[in-house]
Design goal:
The chain has 13 helices and 14 strands. It is α+β, with helices and mostly antiparallel strands and 373 residues long. The two termini are 25 Å apart.
């Protein structure tokens, strides 16, 4: 299947130039690429024939060999009218668990089984998943789905779950869970019966399904779970309509884990949001690793604040007592020019806290968790 047969090729080239789509080359095979939409596409909501498809699209030269799910949104996303409840198909959807890991895209190249993530051949998740899959079938070189005659036009998709890749949900297992089979040429998904048959024949677990209505799903807020995916079939040879329904508690935790960076923690401290900080540190649902990371920044910034104010106080108390401001100013500049603004604020009887906080504003903007590639 040629790349230009499944998307607007000219628009793809434009998106690549403008940074809307990113193309990564395989570290071992220079003619193997994976296409993925970028942060710019997300921020500017550029969803079209190209960006919807470039979500783990794996291409050898100009031939598509594997693909992920098309981009899909949360239920009732205003800029995506098809997700509005009133516009959903009047048929019962397939309801499956929304797993809190990373999407893995299986492909076969150089007679080997590989797993990529939606934007990388060599992300930590892709490397872990490839290693897991190969070890899982180390004693059986005839991996059924990778080599069966009809499989080249289908891509097996996984959820990659292991401890170091934890986002919010704390799972008690590690491995690859089959979440879909996507036809490369059309984007349509195999029905549930085929999905289960292929997964079980290969000794793989398949994502859980539920016999629930949309209303029943929407009413839930289960702890230590992400939510549901609702899949509406639109017929043969076309991708289905998929929507995500995430639990409120999951969304709350996810915003903190993927949204708080050192600068945001600094803002909380400088604004005296001590109660909010204590709530996060005492929240039993927060991962221990996140608490250590968060508390480390809190302690470091508070210590930096104390260090500067203590030093400034000592210098201020030792200033010349001549009563001449010029003499005091010269002393401050000669003794501690780097914190002279703090010292002059002390001299003028001003609150020095805002000045001290401004001096220790961190440059780091990385969050505890980043979206996988």
């Amino acid at each position: 299947m040629k790349l230009q047969d499944i998307l607007d090729y000219d628009l793809l080239q434009k998106h690549l130039v403008n940074g809307v789509v990113r193309r990564q080359v395989h570290p071992q095979y220079p003619n193997l690429f994976v296409y993925n939409y970028t942060e710019q596409a997300q921020f500017e909501r550029i969803w079209d024939n190209v960006t919807n498809v470039c979500r783990g699209l794996i291409v050898a030269d100009d031939c598509v060999i594997a693909r992920g799910f098309n981009k899909f949104h949360n239920l009732n996303t205003e800029f995506a009218p098809e997700t509005m409840e009133a516009n959903l198909p009047k048929i019962a959807p397939l309801v499956t668990e929304k797993l809190d890991g990373s999407m893995g895209i299986q492909y076969v190249w150089d007679d080997k089984i590989w797993v990529a993530t939606r934007g990388s051949f060599a992300s930590e998740q892709a490397i872990w998943a490839t290693d897991w899959l190969r070890k899982h079938y180390a004693e059986d070189s005839n991996y059924y789905w990778a080599h069966r005659a009809e499989s080249p036009d289908w891509t097996m998709l996984f959820e990659i779950i292991y401890a170091e890749n934890r986002i919010v949900v704390d799972y008690d297992f590690e491995g690859l869970i089959v979440i879909g089979l996507v036809r490369v040429s059309t984007g349509e998904e195999a029905d549930r019966h085929l999905l289960e048959a292929v997964a079980y024949q290969n000794g793989l677990d398949v994502v859980r399904r539920f016999d629930k209505s949309l209303a029943e799903c929407a009413a839930e807020n289960n702890l230590n779970e992400e939510g549901y995916v609702l899949t509406y079939s639109l017929g043969e040879n076309v991708p289905p309509l998929k929507v995500k329904m995430k639990f409120v508690e999951y969304c709350r935790l996810h915003r903190i884990l993927t949204g708080l960076n050192p600068r945001a923690i600094w803002e909380m401290l400088s604004d005296n949001q001590n109660e909010a900080i204590d709530l996060i540190l005492n929240d039993e649902k927060m991962p221990t690793e996140f608490k250590h990371w968060f508390n480390g920044w809190v302690l470091q910034l508070r210590q930096d604040f104390v260090t500067i104010t203590t030093r400034a106080t000592k210098i201020f108390l030792s200033r010349p007592q001549t009563g001449i401001r010029k003499d005091v100013a010269l002393y401050f500049l000669q003794t501690a020019q780097d914190i002279s603004s703090v010292l002059f604020a002390m001299l003028d009887g001003k609150d020095v806290s805002p000045i001290v906080w401004d001096k220790i504003r961190p440059k780091a903007t990385d969050t505890f968790k980043q979206e996988e590639a």
